[in-house]
């Protein structure tokens, strides 16, 4: 038992010596302990309304003979809006656009067309999976404007917005 007591006393002596001054008068010895902690933070993803929803852009076809494209612009409820200025008679352009929508897997809910004497247009309401779209076009003579809007799901306000 005496041997075990000496070992314990030696360990206590070494620990005490480590905490005090060293025998050399110009130096000191100290013991430092590093404590590390792990912090976990939860961050939620925010939806921004400043940028257009790029996931919806591939769902909106560009009409043939497009002279100018404006957008995509952000609209309410995480939707996007594009405007196309198209060279072509409104009824022809909108008929071709209806086909282009169906080729992009849009299912038409409402197909409203009107026209005559060189003018006219159409409005298509459609779904593509959960996505919801409003496509409105019209014009006169050889020029057609199309406003195309899409949302990730049916919005409470389906107005497509207007060009700025």
TrEMBL record:
Superkingdom field: Bacteria
Keywords noted in UniProt: Signal
Region (Disordered): 47-74
Cleavable signal peptide: 1-17
Protein name (Swiss-Prot/TrEMBL): Lipoprotein
């Amino acid at each position: 038992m005496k041997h075990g007591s000496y070992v314990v006393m030696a360990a206590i002596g070494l620990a005490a010596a480590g905490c005090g001054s060293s025998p050399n008068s110009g130096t000191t010895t100290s013991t430092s302990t590093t404590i590390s902690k792990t912090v976990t933070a939860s961050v939620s993803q925010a939806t921004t309304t400043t940028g257009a929803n790029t996931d919806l852009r591939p769902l909106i076809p560009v009409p043939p003979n497009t002279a100018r494209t404006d957008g995509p612009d952000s609209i309410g409820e995480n939707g996007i809006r594009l405007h196309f200025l198209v060279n072509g008679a409104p009824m022809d352009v909108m008929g071709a656009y209806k086909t282009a929508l169906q080729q992009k897997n849009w299912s038409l809910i409402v197909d409203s067309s009107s026209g005559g004497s060189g003018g006219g247009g159409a409005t298509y309401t459609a779904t593509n999976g959960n996505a919801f779209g409003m496509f409105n076009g019209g014009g006169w003579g050889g020029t057609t404007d199309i406003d195309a809007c899409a949302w990730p799901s049916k919005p409470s306000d389906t107005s497509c917005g207007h060009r700025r």
